[in-house]
Every structure is written in C-alpha cells, then in structure tokens.
Amino acid sequence: MPGCSGRQSSHAAESFRSGNEQLLQGNYAKAIASYRQVEQQGIRRSELYCNLGNAFLRSGRVGWAVYYYERGLQQTPLDSQLISNRKQAWAAAAIAAPEPNSLPIWNSAAVLKAADIVAELAVFAGLLSAVLWLAGIVYQPSRNRLLLIAASKSLLLASGLLLLLFTGTRLAGERPQAVVILANAAGRVGPGSAARKSFDVKEGEKVTVLNRYEGWSKIQTLKGEEGWISTGSLASLKD
C-alpha cells in the first residue's frame, strides 16, 4: 500500500517526517502518534489523512483507517490513492463496496460547491431584478416599462427558486456522517444497552447520524437500516 507525500508547514514538517519514517519501519503506534501531532496543529491535508489511514490499517484498526481515508477524500474527492486504500480497508473488514447510486451524494464536495454557486446566482438574479424594477418605474414609454417590470418579476421568482434549491441542498448536505470505529457494534431499537439488538454494524461502516441522546446516536446505514448505537463507537466526519 503506497504512502502519500506532500508539503507541510515548517511547524509540522518534522512530525510528519518522523511519522513517515516510523511507518516505513513498521512502528505503527509511533507513526500514528507523530501524525496526530501534525493533526493537532490544525493541519488538514489529504496526504496526512492518507498516511494516518495506512498506519491504522497496517495495525489492524480498520475503523480508524476508513475514517481517515474518508477525511482525506473530503479534501480531495477524486484522489485515486485514497479511493484504492479505502477499498483495501473495506475488504479487510469484509464490507462490500457501496453501489455508486447508494452513496450520499448530498454530502459530496462537488454538490455542495454547486449549491454555493446556485446561491451566488440567486443573489445576482435578485440584484438584477431590483435594477430592472427601478428602471421600469423611471422609464416613461408604457410598453417598455411593463416589459422591464415583467422581467424584474421573472428574475425575482427565479432568485427565490434558486435560494430554495440552495437551502434544500445545504440542509441535506449537513446531515452528519460518521464511521464505526469499534468491532462488534450493533444497532438497537432504542438508546441504551438494554434495548434489543436489531442489526449488526461492521467496524469501518460509514453511517449517517440522525439523532443523539445521552451517549447514544441514532444512525442510518447505507442499506437503510436505522437504530441506536453507542456514540463512543463512532468517529464523526464533521469537525
């Protein structure tokens, strides 16, 4: 499994180099400690997450491996190395690779970026609508005046629709996701260890968090199963 390289700030470079050396020597615990020192300094880089994932995977902690590969893919969604390494982690955990149409598209960086562009277009349409409305008021020929006011109303309507689209996409995209980091986790019918188990959850599975209550999280798997799991069994993919 190839490692990842990249430039770090001078403040974090030594810790990153140390982590790389420890990773090559098979000292995975020390590599993880060095990389996490970099992370604690506020560095959010895909190559850091890639190597953290590699160190965890080689040490047999597949849940954390998937978590860090996912964090890296949040930074660079099309990174082929991260995608390949994540597939290896899924295979190690006996998790079938999700079908493309089952992936949570609303949380993808590309869709959220498109939503931001839609918001900018909505603001532009609203401003242009106001300009046309004012032009329609001051313009004397009645026919042209009516055309300007009609165009203003159309743009205002378009602006409203674009803002609704932006709001809906952003709200959907803000549903928090997490990775199961502990083995032998199970979804339960209610929050609490006394609640009946309803389905098994594999270490390394990516889930959507629907609700939280007193140390328990209600999750939804990619298969659509819903249940409660100990919050300590999850690592959130949202800072």
What does this structure look like?
This protein is α+β, with helices and mostly antiparallel strands and 239 residues long. The chain has three domains: 10-97, Tetratricopeptide repeat domain (Serine Threonine Protein Phosphatase 5, Tetratricopeptide repeat, Alpha Horseshoe), CATH 1.25.40; 106-173; 177-236, Roll (SH3 type barrels). Helices cover 54% and strands 14% of the residues. The chain has helices at residues 10-24, 28-40, 46-58, 62-75, 80-92, 109-138, 142-173, and strands at residues 177-180, 185-188, 197-201, 206-213, 216-220, 226-230, 234-236. A hairpin with a 5-residue loop joins strand 5 (216-220) and strand 6 (226-230). Helix 3 (46-58) runs parallel beside helix 5. It is elongated. The mean pLDDT is 81.
How is the topology of this model organized?
Blueprint: H1 10-24, H2 28-40, H3 46-58, H4 62-75, H5 80-92, H6 109-138, H7 142-173, E1 177-180, E2 185-188, E3 197-201, E4 206-213, E5 216-220, E6 226-230, E7 234-236
Antiparallel strand pairs: 1-4, 1-7, 2-3, 4-5, 5-6
Helix pairs in contact: 1-2, 1-3, 2-3, 3-4, 3-5, 4-5, 6-7
Keywords for this entry:
about 240 residues; alpha+beta; Serine Threonine Protein Phosphatase 5, Tetratricopeptide repeat; SH3 type barrels; 3 domains; five-stranded antiparallel β-sheet; two-stranded antiparallel sheet; about 55% helix; about 15% strand
Short description:
By secondary structure, the protein is an alpha+beta fold. It has seven helices and seven strands, in the order αααααααβββββββ. It has helices spanning 10-24, 28-40, 46-58, 62-75, 80-92, 109-138, 142-173, and strands at 177-180, 185-188, 197-201, 206-213, 216-220, 226-230, 234-236.
